[in-house]
């Protein structure tokens, strides 16, 4: 469904009186990966790892600095402006914050129905019929179409956001922290809804989240990002049961467990310090400033990502020694 080849996204940083370019933020720095049809690919990492930027590049909401994007067999890298319209039908996004994602002065029918007017030229009753059908599918009452966003709870608003994303029957959806702005009590309901809709419509998801429990529950495969790079990719259970990159081990160690005896054998690593600035990423392995196993080679040479077992990829010089 999706193939990324060596994607980079650098943002210029301006400063001084003349606001000249004084550097660049390497938000995404050489990411390659595939997502198969019907798959849910989870992308995890701390704030500043580049996962949200990558999600926006995939959808062409922002242009990559370099690299190529293939969607459903087509190279979409060079598409611009109106050429992107057909793609907007097929690729959608569900943003993190349903409070910001909905126009406060528009009724639900106008919010959810707008893509039908733009892409299918529908009007009046035709739009209302499709909106009504979609609201039912996301667990809302069709009568809700005549109300405004402020009349709904957070969970209901996220259902409206999902209805809008699905109204054109897309194939691929980026879920950008879809539940993190919601109360814990409604998070599971929204995740179950997304899971049901995936089955019903044969969707493919890219799930961006810092919540490892959500990613574990919901994804087929997981990619771990650190400072703009993918450091580990594996099928979900393999990644959580047998993490090989020290950063992944650190992330997984930070998940609270109800009974520590159950995970006695699992290796632990405390992640110290903050993620460094992507403007001046560390040389060699970018994780070396926080890695307790770092050796000289880690400071000077960047580790390549390599397949260590079927479908399990790691970028670490010492993965053999640490196994
Ligand atoms: Fe740690 Fe070195 Fe592996 Fe980087 S390459 S994760 S610094 S051991």
TrEMBL record:
One of its GO terms (molecular function) is ATP hydrolysis activity. The keyword Protein transport does not apply. PROSITE patterns: ABC_TRANSPORTER_1, ABC_TRANSPORTER_2. GO terms for biological process: peptide transport. GO terms for cellular component: plasma membrane. Transmembrane segments: none annotated. Residues 2-252 form the ABC transporter domain. InterPro entries: AAA+_ATPase, ABC_transp_ATP-bind, ABC_transporter-like_ATP-bd, ABC_transporter-like_CS, Oligopep_ABC_C, P-loop_NTPase. It comes from the Archaea. The keyword Transport applies. Keywords: ATP-binding, Nucleotide-binding, Transport. Belongs to the ABC transporter superfamily. This is ABC-type oligopeptide transport system, ATPase component.
């Amino acid at each position: 469904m999706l193939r990324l080849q060596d994607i980079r996204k650098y943002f210029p940083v301006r400063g001084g009186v003349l606001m000249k370019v004084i550097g660049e933020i390497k938000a995404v720095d050489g990411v390659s990966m595939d997502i198969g049809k019907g798959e849910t690919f989870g992308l995890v990492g701390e704030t500043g790892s580049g996962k949200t930027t990558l999600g926006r590049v995939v959808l062409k909401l922002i242009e990559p600095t370099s690299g190529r994007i293939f969607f459903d067999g087509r190279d979409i890298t060079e598409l611009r402006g109106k050429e992107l319209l057909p793609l907007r039908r097929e690729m959608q996004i569900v943003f993190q914050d349903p409070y910001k994602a909905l126009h406060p002065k528009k009724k639900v029918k106008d919010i959810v129905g707008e893509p039908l007017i733009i892409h299918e030229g529908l009007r009046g009753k035709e739009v209302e019929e499709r909106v009504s059908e979609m609201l039912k599918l996301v667990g809302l009452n069709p009568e809700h179409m005549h109300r405004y966003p402020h009349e709904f709870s957070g969970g209901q608003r996220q259902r409206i956001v999902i209805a809008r994303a699905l109204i054109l029957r897309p194939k691929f959806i980026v879920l950008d922290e879809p539940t993190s702005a919601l109360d814990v009590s409604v998070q599971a309901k929204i995740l179950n809804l997304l899971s049901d809709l995936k089955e019903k419509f044969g969707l493919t998801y890219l799930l961006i989240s810092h919540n490892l429990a959500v990613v574990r529950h919901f994804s087929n495969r997981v990619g771990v990002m650190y400072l703009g790079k993918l450091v580990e990719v594996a099928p979900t259970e393999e990644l959580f049961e047998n993490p090989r990159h020290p950063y992944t081990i650190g992330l997984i160690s930070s998940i609270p467990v109800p009974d520590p005896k159950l995970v006695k054998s699992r290796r632990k690593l405390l992640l110290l310090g903050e993620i460094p600035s992507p403007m001046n990423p560390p040389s060699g392995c970018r994780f070396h400033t926080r890695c307790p196993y770092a050796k000289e080679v880690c400071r000077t040479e960047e580790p390549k990502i390599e397949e260590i077992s079927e479908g399990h990829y790691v970028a670490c010089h010492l993965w053999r020694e640490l196994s």
